[in-house]
């Protein structure tokens, strides 16, 4: 496989033994940055998310296929090879791949790969330079280490759901999960950072290392200001809907035709807001002159603001504040967001071709997706191809490894690949 000559991770080989979201998000990030990522999938079944639908992709004739769009969200720029790692031949094949890899990413249960001789200690013996990243729900140590961990469970256990949603007693009150599997995604991002740091360290030491990533660790870490506030005060924060615990006004308001969001982060912005809505006396009021006082007198301020915010449409408010450096915006649907002129100008929707000829029955030549947000001037993110069909590159990868046509045929006949 050829990669973009100016890609940041060009020449780095990644063996991807992960599935679902956190691990694949990590390896997709590495692939976007130019690494050659080979994804190992189960024969016939593949990654679990290939079946996580609807929605499913449509083929070139507009017919619904058997591949869920979930899979395509986190597996672009990769090659797919099918290997049955439960067989001795499959284990030997993966060990041979690991011997030549720079990075291995896996998200099996703790100890799950040891029985196959594919754990870090075993593979380090054949490739001391290997950066081996394990992604689990609760990490390699601790009383929960052997538990399976899922994003929703970890959102609940970490306290994130206790600060997400409307307060008890309000309409729709109660704990809520975030609308996407945010812990999985952020664990993938942390893992990609860790992998690149380990590769940099390897340049100095010549040795790889084991990276232990846990969803629970990430969920605790990303609560940043809320967690720090609890540790400083001893008081656990509670749900406050779209309000900010340390800023006001920083929330949504009903407008004449829907809802509008204000994100006022300092006293200057508040003063400009007050002037624009013809209530300069609010910013002069001692109760509201500083953010600290506004938070202390939050309800009194909201009682004044809410009727005023209902007097104009969302679009009118956005237009009014646009040249006044007052952060204000609509609450879009995804459909609205993809039609937003800024989103279009930044090219955040991408349509990628399938990598060569996908095997039947998956005749999908182009797959839509969301662009990588990283913009680098010298070594830009590259988009080579959309997510692969199951096992699409099995022959290609085996040929690169030195297997001949007869050997590949034997591996297939023995159901190793």
TrEMBL record:
Signal sequence, start to end: none
Pfam families membership: CoA_transf_3
Keywords, ordered alphabetically: Transferase
Domain of life: Bacteria
GO molecular function, one term: CoA-transferase activity
Keyword Secreted: no
Residue runs in coiled coils: none
Keyword Transferase: yes
The protein's name: CoA transferase
Organism: Diaphorobacter ruginosibacter
């Amino acid at each position: 496989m050829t990669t973009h000559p100016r890609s940041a991770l060009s020449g780095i080989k990644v063996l991807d033994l992960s599935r679902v979201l956190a691990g694949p998000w990590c390896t997709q990030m590495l692939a976007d940055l130019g690494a050659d990522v080979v994804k190992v999938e189960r024969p016939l079944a593949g990654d679990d998310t290939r079946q996580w639908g609807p929605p499913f992709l449509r083929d070139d004739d507009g017919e619904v296929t058997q591949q869920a769009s979930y899979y395509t969200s986190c597996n672009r720029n990769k090659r797919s090879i099918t290997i049955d790692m439960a067989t001795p031949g499959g284990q030997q094949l993966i060990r041979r791949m690991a011997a030549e890899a720079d990075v291995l990413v896996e998200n099996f249960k703790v100890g799950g790969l040891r029985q196959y001789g594919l754990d870090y200690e075993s593979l380090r013996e054949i490739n001391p330079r290997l950066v081996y990243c394990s992604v689990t729900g609760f990490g390699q140590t601790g009383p929960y280490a052997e538990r399976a961990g899922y994003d929703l469970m970890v959102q609940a256990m970490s306290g994130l759901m206790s600060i997400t949603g409307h307060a008890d007693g309000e309409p729709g009150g109660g704990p809520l999960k975030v609308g996407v599997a945010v812990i999985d995604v952020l664990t993938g991002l942390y893992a990609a950072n860790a992998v690149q740091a380990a590769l940099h360290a390897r340049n100095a030491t010549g040795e790889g290392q084991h990276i232990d990533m846990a969803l629970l660790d990430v969920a605790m870490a990303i609560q940043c200001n809320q967690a720090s506030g609890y540790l400083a005060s001893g008081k656990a924060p509670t749900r406050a809907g779209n309000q900010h615990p340390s800023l006001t006004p920083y929330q949504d308001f009903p407008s004449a035709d829907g809802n509008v969001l204000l994100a006022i982060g300092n006293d200057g912005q508040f003063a400009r807001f007050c002037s624009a809505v013809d209530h300069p006396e609010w910013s002069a009021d001692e109760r509201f002159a500083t953010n600290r006082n506004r938070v202390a007198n939050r309800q009194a301020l909201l009682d004044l603001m809410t009727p005023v915010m209902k007097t104009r449409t969302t679009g009118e408010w956005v237009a009014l504040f646009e040249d006044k450096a007052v952060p204000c915006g609509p609450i879009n649907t995804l459909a609205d967001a993809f039609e937003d002129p800024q989103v279009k100008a930044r090219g955040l929707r991408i349509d990628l071709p399938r990598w060569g000829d996908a095997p039947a029955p998956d005749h999908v030549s182009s797959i839509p997706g969301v662009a990588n947000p990283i913009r680098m001037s010298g070594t830009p993110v590259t988009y080579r191809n959309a997510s692969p069909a199951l096992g699409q590159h099995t022959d290609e990868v085996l040929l690169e490894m030195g297997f001949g046509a007869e050997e590949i045929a034997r591996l297939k006949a023995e159901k190793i690949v």
